Give the backbone structure.
Amino acid sequence: MNSPLDPPREIAELRNALEAVRKSEEQFRTMLDDIPTLVWRTTADGSAEFFNERWFEYTGLAPDVAYGSGWMAAFHPDDLESLSKKWTEIVASRKASEVEARFRRHDGQYRWHLMRSVPQFDESGRLVSWCGTNTDIEDRKEAEERLSQAFDRIKKSEEELRTIIDTIPALAWSSPEDGIGDFFSKRWLSYTGLSHEQASGTGWVSAIHPDDLEGLAASWTRIRASGREGSLEARLRRYDGAYRWFLFQAAPLRNPEGKDVVWYGTNTDIEDLKQAESELRRREADLRKAQAELAHVTRTTTMGELVASIAHEVNQPVGAMTLNANSCVRWLSQLKDESPELQEARKALQRIVQDGIRTGKIITRIRALVEKAESVREPLDINSIFHEVIALSKNEMEQRQVLLRLDLAVDLPPVLGDRVQLQQVMINLILNGIEAMTAVDGAARELVIGTQLDRGNVLASVRDTGVGFDADKAEQLFTAFHTSKRGGLGMGLSISRSIIDDHGGKLWATLNDGVGATFHFSLPVPSDR
Ligand code: ADP
C-alpha cells in the first residue's frame, strides 16, 4: 500500500524518467565535451546556439560573446569575407558542406581549421538547425605548404637545369633504353629546324646524313648493348640543308633499382676540326709526294753527275782510240799492197775514225748539257739532221717493223742551232714514237717525219700510230720525271723542250685524228734570210 505522503506512482515514474533523461543528456554533453574536436550548432539561419567545451577552451571566448554571430570574431580577418560569403551560401544551399579557414586559438595563434556542417530537419522536412565540427588541420596544411614549396623548388631547379641544357654550346638529348628520342634541347631543335614532335621517336633519324645512317645505327646499338658511355661520329643536317660533322656522346643513367636506363647525350659540332684534319692529311700527302720527288731528283742529279764523270772518263780513251786508228790509216796508206783485204781494212779503219770523232762530239755535248756549258750555234739543215738521225735508228725501226715515211720540204732555209743537241731532240722523238707504237699489238706501225716552212719558222713533226695520250695531259708529258714506261726516266721530253726553248723555238704534242700522236717543234729562221 502507498502511504498518503508518498507521491503518486506516476509522478515517481515521471521523476525517474526525467532523471534518466537528465543523466543521458549529461553523458551526451560529457561525450561532446570530450571528443577531440570542436563541435557547434546554429539555428536554421546560422546564428550560433551551442558550442562544446573544447570549442570554448580552444577559442577562449566566453559563451555570451560567442553565441549569435559573435563566433565570427575568432576567424582570421583575411578569411572573414570569403568565409561569411561561403557560410551564407551554405545556409542557403541547405546541404552538408565544408570550408577551410584560419581560426584563432585562445593564445592568439591562428590555426587552419576544416569546418564541416550538416543541416538538420524535423519530421516535416523543415530545416531546424546546423551541426558542425571544426577540425584542426594546421599540421596537414603545413605539410601541404612544405610539399608545395618543395615542388616549387624542384620546378625552379628544373627550369634552371633546362636553361643550362639549352645554353651549353652543344645539342643535348635523352632517350629511353630502346634508343628512341624523347627529349631534345632547344639548340638541338633550332639547329635541325625540326619541331619536338618531328624529332621525337625515330623522327630525329631524318636529320642524319643518309651515308652515315648505317654506321650510326650499328654504333648506337653497340653502345646501348655495352651499357656504358660511348661516342660516334656522323653528319647532322642543319635547318638550311647543310650537313656538318658532329660527335655524338651518350651516357646511361640507371634508376635506383638499377633497372630502367635512360641515355643522356650531347652532339658537338666537329666540322671545323674534321676539315682541319683532312687539310692536315692532304698536306701530309703533299709532303710525302714532295719527299718522293726530292728523292727522285736527288737520284737523278746523282745520275747527272755520274754521266758527267763517265763522259769525262770515256772521252780520253775514245780520243786515243780515234788518234791511233787515224795513225793506222796513215800507215796503211803508205803500203804498196793493194789487196782487197787491205782495202777493206783501210775502209774499216776510216769508219772507226769517223765513229770515234762522232762519239767524241757526243761526249762533249753530253758534258756540255750536264755541265750546262754554252751550246754551239751554226747554220743547220734540219732535213739533213733528220737523215743522220734516221740512219742511226734504222736498226731499231727494222726490228720493230716500223714503216717510215718522209714528207720533207725541199729548199728549207737553214736554222741556227747546235747539231748534236737537235739530233738528241729528234732521236728522242723518233724513239718515243717507235715505243708508243710497239705498245699497240697487231696494228700497222707507221712513222711519218715531216718538215715545212711556216711564216719564218721551220716546222718539223714526228707522227706515229701509237697509244697516244690523255687529251688533257698533253702538257704533263713535258714535265721532268713524268713517265709511263717501266724503267723510263721521264727526262727525254723535258730536256728536248729546254733545248728547243734554248733555240728560240717551241716543242708541243697533239693527238692525231685517228690513232697515235704527233710531236712538233718549230725553229726560227734567222731574220737576215
Ligand atoms: P720516257 O720516255 O723516259 O718515259 P719522255 O720524257 O721521253 O720520258 O716521255 C715521257 C712520257 O711521255 C712517256 O713515258 C710517255 O708516256 C709519253 N710519250 C712520249 N712520247 C709519246 C708518244 N709518241 N706517244 C704517246 N706517249 C708518248
In short: The mean pLDDT is 87. The first helix runs from residue 9 to 34. Residues 278 and 524 are 50 Å apart (CA to CA).
